[in-house]
Amino acid sequence: MTVQKLKELLEQVARGELETQAALERLKSLPYEDLGFARVDHHRALRQGFPEVIYGQGKTPEQIARIARAIFDQGSAVLVTRVNREKAQAVQEEFPELSYHPDASCLVRQAREKPRPGRGLVAVLAAGTSDLPVAQEAVLTARLMGSSVETLFDVGVSGLHRLLDSAQVLRRATCFVVVAGMEGALPSVVAGMVDKPVVAVPTSVGYGTAFGGLAALLGMLNSCAPGLSVVNIDNGFGAGYLAGLIDHLE
């Protein structure tokens, strides 16, 4: 249930085009729908502008499919993160309308109505090819929210000329998601070059002293570049969501 859908429903009742009881039937699953093992938050799109997102890791295919179906039955977009190919195939047997994006390990179903477009351009940058799964999760999330997204991949600090060659994208973008592992330097570089918000994403990519992304996380948190915020390790979804919200600010 989105703000626009709720407004249309109330207007139909006010004009006498829809019986009160019929409207009540549509609204009775608000604010949540109890599936027994999960309480699906149908009110979230009204509160936050985007429906509940399903974290696939740790859930069975049957649980994912039932939650996804409940969300889609309200007309909302469906996004399931952290799903490997085997689990995705099992979910699709229950809910074949979902499409799988192996590069992001996500299952997706577009909303029945197109989302409100963003105001600008979200640029998603990845330091190295090993960072791409996290970066693609951010890309998919922002696009599902209605943002226009452009990508710059493999532009890490070990070959900074590759980033400088894309100066036009840096100038056009209104928000940045910058994904990096190892020492996590790329977000600081980008934030020092642009006058727009930068969302930094540390990844678990790196050798022993990368400590599973902790080194990159601490490097980003200690950045001296202003205008930079940091999400959790490997949290491409969180970064894409934040960028999408920024892109939709009035």
Shape descriptor = globular
- CATH architecture descriptor of the largest domain: 3-Layer(aba) Sandwich
Segments where pLDDT lies below 50 for 5+ residues?
Answer: none
Under CATH, the topology of the largest domain is which? Rossmann fold
Written account of the structure:
By secondary structure, this protein is an alpha/beta fold. The chain has two domains: 3-109, no CATH class; 121-247, 3-Layer(aba) Sandwich (Rossmann fold), CATH 3.40.50.1970. It is 39% helix and 18% strand. The protein is built from eleven helices and eleven strands. It has helices spanning 3-14, 20-27, 44-48, 61-73, 85-94, 132-144, 161-164, 167-172, 186-191, 214-221, 236-247; strands at residues 32-34, 39-41, 54-55, 78-81, 99-101, 106-109, 121-126, 148-153, 175-180, 198-202, 228-230. The protein is globular and about 65 Å long. The model has no long low-confidence stretch (mean pLDDT 90).
Layout of helices and strands:
Blueprint: H1 3-14, H2 20-27, E1 32-34, E2 39-41, H3 44-48, E3 54-55, H4 61-73, E4 78-81, H5 85-94, E5 99-101, E6 106-109, E7 121-126, H6 132-144, E8 148-153, H7 161-164, H8 167-172, E9 175-180, H9 186-191, E10 198-202, H10 214-221, E11 228-230, H11 236-247
Parallel strand pairs: 3-4, 7-8, 7-9, 9-10, 10-11
Antiparallel strand pairs: 1-2, 4-6, 5-6
Helix pairs in contact: 4-5, 6-11
